Amino acid sequence: MGVVALLFFGCGGEPGEREFQRGLKEASRGNYVRARTLLEKSLSLRPGSEANASVYNYMGIISFRLGQMEQARQAFESSRQSDPTFSEPAYNLGVLTDKSGDAARAITLLEEAAALAPSDTRAQEYVAAIHVRNGKWPEARRALFGALARAPQSSRVLTSLALLEAYSGSADKAVFYLMQALDKNPHYAPALFNLGVLYERDLGDRDQAREFYKNFLEVEKSGPFADQARQALDEMSVALAAAPPVESAPAAAPSVAETIQASGPAAAPAVPESPASAPAASAVQPSAGARDYQAVAREALDRGQPKKALSICLDEAEKAGRSKDYARQEKALRTAARLCFDQPEAHYALGRFLMTRGQPDAALRSFKQALTLNPKMTLAQLALAEAAVKTGEYDAALVTLKQAAQAEPNNPDTLWALAELYDRQLGVQDKAIEYYRQFEKLFPGDPRVLKASERLKLLEPILPAETMRRPAIEEAAAAEPQRTETSAPAADSRLDIKKPVFRNTKAAIQAYNRGTIYQQQEDWDRAVYYYTRAVENDDTLANAFYNLGSAYWAKGELQLAKEAYHRSLQISSDTVNARYNLALIHQKLGENAAAIDQLNTILKLQPQYAQAYYVLGMVYADQPKTRSQAMQAYTRFLELAPNDPSAPGVRDWLEKQ
């Protein structure tokens, strides 16, 4: 994409206007040398004109495309001098500066461009792209939320937020934002493509991936990403043909296990949606290469380039972090804090590392030093508050967060941290409600609004106390017994599920996906609602019944959970997780024979399933006459999982027998 869209002014009698228009026309044809000559002539014909800011800006773009970076920089600077309120040259100069390797200076210029154009999101999106490139997820998220506040309907910004969540390992949040992007524009190609990639690579749901790839190809029929989508479809078709036939396909989204939830790093989706920018140029930032990074950093300091020195140390730390060499990473960060002692970013980076290593006290000192150098550094304020909470310094956390909120009232992370601090640590209910409500109002697109709604339900009284009193015993005796909404389900509770008149798999998939989002947010009532809608549209989705069981379990409604797991197993009898959870429910309800039956079935399917032996041991240990069987089960458990967290307790039990 070009740096900026070409702006055509109407031809008029002003000197130089004709040459300006002709220059733009030549530039659109790729005749850059001829275009620059015409623009230079336009400048000579109207010295001091307000329109010269645009002329200089386009001269900078043309020089950029010709690979003449210094001329481009001078032209953009001249444009800024001609009209200090013109945002385009500040943006373009920021892009150019980033391409030349000075990301810190680029961010400053881009933030200036954003301030000059309150409705334009490109500068904030580009800032986010820089932070993503450097692995600074909180900073990138902050920039993108700023862009979203300006353009809440932007599918592009929502897609960028989704990619950020995918990069940082939150596939469920990525899906959340991509679905929002499609709500704004159902034919937005990057969202369709990236949903295909997420479902294929991260979530392991080929049926969903196939649908999104097909929808993407309906919108974008040619190009490298279209080729990639076709290749993915071909590979999935080959894999499907090679797989043994099964009676029922898995549900259209991954299940969320109630027992043990494992998640790995998300593969970065393709098509990273980037803001409009200049064509790529060769970076000129020197690399330390095989030389000692400390020596290179000192040389940069000697040249009066502390930002460059800091960047060199942080690059070394990032490389060490990627290779999981934490000692080397800490050394590089401490070197940055020592050499670049007057740079707040150095102390902030060290503090973030110390937080990840479980040293909040030391991290707190680093964050305080960062704020001493730059009292308005919002990221350091948020980090200091986080560390203060971990060390029990709640007053310090509150003061810092209030300062951050005053400086940046539209920062979602600050508002959320304040709400949680009042709610979880300070227990000031009124203030927590105030900030949760404010968060819901200002950031409806943030996934945390689901959690805010859940907390508000618990914090806000639903009815006045007078209406919640139970009737007197005498009055109740004369009335027919009624089951209240909060009463525990009876032993014969049944799932209230309507059988579908006809199967609507597409609607079922949509409801299922909504359910997974609410389940991840631990909003169990809404999760139950959407999983129920899913199976009422298509009652062959085993995973929907499975997740419905998990949601009921979380609500404490074990009879309903038990029935949901049974329904899942009726569709897919070899689903070990469903059978294991069902065995746990039987054990909790004292139905030991049924629990043993389920566990033995699991061990026929997967003889190495250690947890099944552990639960068998628990069940057998309840009765003296089956202690020997408990010992056998526990012994086998230790053989299969000697380092399991439950292993020490099992060994103690066996030694006492």
List keywords for this structure.
67% helix, single chain, 657 residues, mainly alpha, Serine Threonine Protein Phosphatase 5, Tetratricopeptide repeat, disordered N terminus
Summarize the model shown.
The chain has helices at residues 17-28, 32-45, 52-65, 69-82, 87-99, 103-116, 122-133, 137-150, 155-167, 171-184, 189-202, 206-219, 224-242, 293-302, 306-322, 326-339, 344-356, 360-373, 378-390, 394-407, 412-426, 429-442, 448-459, 473-478, 505-520, 524-537, 542-554, 558-571, 576-588, 592-605, 610-621, 627-640, 647-656. The chain has 657 residues and is mostly helical.
Q: How does this structure look, described?
A:
By secondary structure, this protein is mainly α. Among the domains are: 17-242, Tetratricopeptide repeat domain (Serine Threonine Protein Phosphatase 5, Tetratricopeptide repeat, Alpha Horseshoe), CATH 1.25.40; 574-657, Alpha Horseshoe (Serine Threonine Protein Phosphatase 5, Tetratricopeptide repeat), CATH 1.25.40.10. Helices cover 67% and strands 0% of the residues. The radius of gyration is 31 Å and the shape is globular. It starts with 16 loop residues before the first helix and ends with a helix. The relative contact order is 0.05.
